[in-house]
Structure formats: structure tokens, C-alpha cells
Design brief:
- This protein is of the alpha/beta class.
- It has a single domain, classed as Nitrilase/N-carbamoyl-D-aminoacid amidohydrolase, CATH 3.60.110.
- 26% of the residues lie in helices and 28% in strands.
- The strands form 2 sheets. Strands 1, 2, 3, 4, 5 and 6 form a 6-stranded mixed beta sheet that branches. A two-stranded antiparallel ribbon has the order 7-8.
- A hairpin with a 2-residue loop joins strand 4 and strand 5.
- Helix 1 packs parallel to helix 2.
- It is globular, with a radius of gyration of 14 Å.
């Protein structure tokens, strides 16, 4: 099994970061799992509203789906802002061959994430794959998992 962990360079804009992440994913096309980091699309110093972040992150979600069509294995999409009804989440989307196979919402938010309006997730993801079970955690989730 080949796992590729990608650390993408911050290019200073959502568009640039999404484009760079896609280039990195496509270089990992033979990996069984290609993984991006938390908030890979959001540049340092991003000061727009959570609503604007969600709108801009929609391009990142579409890129993850598109890239997964050209990759052998799974794309584990780090995390992006997701909106459901009136709530926003720090969510990791997992795609394979263009299909969404799972998503995980960060449970243990930082104080900054809560102050910006994010809502914590409620369930841990454990997905059965042909390689065994995969569990996705995001950042501080690893610090407090009972």
C-alpha cells in the first residue's frame, strides 16, 4: 500500500492553493491514498468571513472530486469549510474515482475556529476500504478521543 502525504506550499490565495494542491495530487496518481493537510486551500492571514471562506472552498471540493478521477486510489482532502443549512464545519472529504465515499467533520475545534463560527462534528469516521479500515482525524481531534 502506498500512502502519499502532501504538504502544499501557501501561494497566498485560495485559487493558487487549490491549483497547487491539484498539481501535487496528480503527481501522487499511483498512490493508494493521497492526503492533503487541514485547510490546504486557505492562505495564511485569511481574514474573510466564514461565509466567504465556504464560497471560495467550493472550488477546492470540486478540485478534489476532479483529481480523484485521475488518481488510482483515494483522495483524502485535508479539510475545507463545508456548509449545511445554517452551520459551517471543518470537513474532510474523501473521494475515489470521482465519487464522494465519506466525509468527516472535525470534532475538537480550536477556540479560533469556534469564534469564527464553525460547528463541531459529532461522529468519528471509520471507513472500510479494500486495504482495511481508515479513520480520519483533523488536527486537535487526536488530543481528546475517548
Amino acid at each position: 500500500m502506498r500512502v502519499c502525504l502532501l504538504q502544499v506550499e501557501d501561494l497566498g490565495s485560495v485559487e493558487g492553493n487549490v491549483r497547487h494542491a491539484e498539481e501535487m495530487l496528480l503527481k501522487a496518481k499511483d498512490a493508494d491514498f493521497a492526503c492533503l493537510p487541514e485547510f490546504f486551500a486557505i492562505p495564511r492571514g485569511y481574514d474573510k468571513s466564514i461565509y466567504d471562506a465556504w464560497r471560495e472552498n467550493m472550488a477546492a471540493i470540486d478540485m478534489l472530486r476532479r483529481a480523484s478521477e485521475r488518481i488510482k486510489g483515494y483522495v483524502i482532502g485535508g479539510s475545507v469549510i463545508e456548509r449545511e443549512a445554517d452551520k459551517f464545519y471543518n470537513t474532510c472529504f474523501m473521494f475515489k474515482r470521482g465519487e464522494l465515499v465519506a466525509k468527516y467533520r472535525k470534532i475538537n475545534l480550536t477556540d479560533e475556529e469556534e469564534s469564527k463560527g464553525l460547528t463541531p462534528g459529532k461522529e468519528i469516521l471509520s471507513l472500510k476500504t479494500e486495504y482495511g479500515y481508515v479513520t480520519v482525524l483533523i488536527c486537535a481531534d487526536i488530543l481528546d478521543m475517548d
